[in-house]
Each structure stands twice: as structure tokens, then as C-alpha cells.
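Let's study my pick:
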Amino acid sequence: FRGARAATERSARRQRAIEEAPAMGLPTHRDSDARRRRKGASASLFYGSTSIATVFLNKSIFATWKFKFPATLVTAQTIFTVFAIVALEHLGAISPRGGKGFRGNFNAKAFKRVGVVSAVFQMKLVLDMKALSMINIPMYGVLKSATTPFVMAIDWVMMGKVAPARVQAAVWLTTLGGVCAGTGDLEFNFLGYLVALCSALCTAMYVVLVGKIGDELQLDSFTLLLYNSLWSAPLSLAICFVFGEHRGLLDYPYLGHFGFLIAFLCSCSSAFILNYATYLCTQLNEALTTSVVGRTKGIVQGVFGLFAFHVRASATNVAGIILNSAGVAWYAYEKYTGAKRSSPRAIAPATLNACVIHREDSQLTLESSARSEGAVANERPVVPTNGRMALKNSHQHAH
């Protein structure tokens, strides 16, 4: 009788503890959801602000410090990226899928396949920098939005794929805004516009090619970034010598200036930091959120760009930028609602796991390897141990 009574009292105490848990400040399921939402929002803000800051930082290198060697900057960025990835892997902060390290996990076949698109990637980077050095930030963003119609045109030519009517309408509005903005641009530079459009075309080709290779090889984004950088560093270095940047660099007046060196180092690290920010945003939210943030951050970038570098703008130019921004926002809305309708129960992964590159229309996004293999329901999450970010059977990001 005493044993039964003691058991009853223990059961009552446990029940009271459960009921009093919220009042005692103990974690609840609702608290856990709230923390996850806060972390997701912070990661989205980090990704969006990092992406915008990268553009402004590179622009300041060219506009403020009068640095006119885009291939040299790209070379430094790719070399920094290689060393950063290797160093962080050695420290245990990141790891490729498979858990054997980049050296033990090296895939010669994948490396050769990536080499095919690295030339396009390299051309995209150099043209990006060159365009940014020749035109203002708002028009840079407007002209880079041409990537989407270029991707749609390539899809139509290669696969006969036609976008829905509402998506096409959004793209036409974006294009109309771009034409209007260009017509009223008081700082119009024909060569700069041509370079920016070529950059958008290279970006579209890169998205299509990497989307295909990513689906076939299931590369996580750090591995793809490493392979791309290993190919791109010698290519960009060769461009430096072909165009004589190595000679001009020796005569650059601010080469030893402390402020310039700090700005240059920050710019070199920006590519890797942006890749990690995209990775984090995708892991704590979902690929769709990252895609929408990536598209709409251009609107904020254009607005701040009008004032940051004292851009001379006409009413026609501003109206065109507004139309272009409206088209970008409409396009992002259509893709977001369309994805939600087709996949209403998609949720963000609970742990920081490896992500593979996946093409989502005109963007490259990160997708859980479990999702890409259709095995989410049967997958056991990999829990990070000893502070190591496990990049195994799940998902991660790229600029």
C-alpha cells in the first residue's frame, strides 16, 4: 500500500512539473519554434545584407580607390577562397559530403566536368567586376536582372521549355523597366552596358550548365566553389597578363595604402562569406526563402546605390528602376506562390547538413541531398559533433 501511494505521489509531482514548465521558463515546443524563426530571420538578413555589402564593397574599390584591374581582384578572390575552404576544413568547421575531407573525397571526374563550366564562371566574374567599375550600382542591378530572360531564352531553345504567362509578364515588366531606365541614364556608358549584358548572359549560361552538372554529380556548394576556384585562379591570372594588368598594378599609387589594403582584403573574402551566408540562410529557412531574398535584395541595393555614390538620375531613369524593381518583386512573388502551391509542406532542415547545388529556374540554390534523392521521410538527421558542421546527407548555398 505504501509503495503504491509513493508511486502515485511521484506521478502527481511529474504532472505538476509538466504543467508548471512554461511558468518556470523551461523550453517548450513553442519556444523552440520561436527560436528557429528568429534564427531563420537573422540568417536571411545576414545573407541579404552580405550580398548587398559585397556589391558596394567591390564598387568602392573601383570608384573610391580608382582600382582599374578587375581580373587582378578576381584572381585574389579565387585564391583567398581556396585557402579559406582548405583552412576551415582543416580546422573542422566545414566538411564535404562523405566526411573524408576535400582531399580524401576528391572526385577527378567531377573536377574535370566542373572545368568545362569554370571558363564561363571566370568570364562571368571578370565581366561582373568590369561592369561594376564602368556603370553605377542601380543600373548594374537593372542590367543584371537580364539574367532571367536570358535563362528563359536558353531553356526555350535547348528544351522547348516555356514559362507560365504570369511569370513571362513579370519578366517583360522587368525588361521594360530596364529599357526605360537605360534611356534616362545620365551616366550612360555604352561599353559598360554591353559588358553588363554579357555578364548577365554568362551568368545565365553558368546557371544552366551548373544546374545540369549539379543534378548529375550531386556536388555540395563548398566542393563546387573549391573546384571552380582551382580552375578559375590560373585562368584569371592569365587574363591579368594578357591585358597587362600586372604592369599597371606596379604603378598603382595606393598599392601600399593601409585603407586600400583593408578594403581589398575585405573584397577578397566577400565571395566566400557570401557563399557561407547563402548556405546558412538555406539551412535555417528553406531554399525558396533564399531564392526570394536573393531576387528582392536587388531592389534595396538599387535604392541605396542611388545615394551612396551620388548617382545623377533623371525622372525617366528613376521610373525605369521602379518598373524594373516591380517586375523583380512580381517575379519573386510568382515563384514563391507557385513553389508553395506545389510543395506546401516543405520545411527547413533542423540541422546544419551538407547541401547540393540545385537549379531553381534562373538561380542556383542549395537543396538537401536527402530531398534530391527523394528520401527525406526515411532520413535520420546527422547531428553536428564537437562543433563540426556536418555537411553529409542534407543541404547548403553561392553569388
Notes: The chain is about 70% helix and 5% strand.
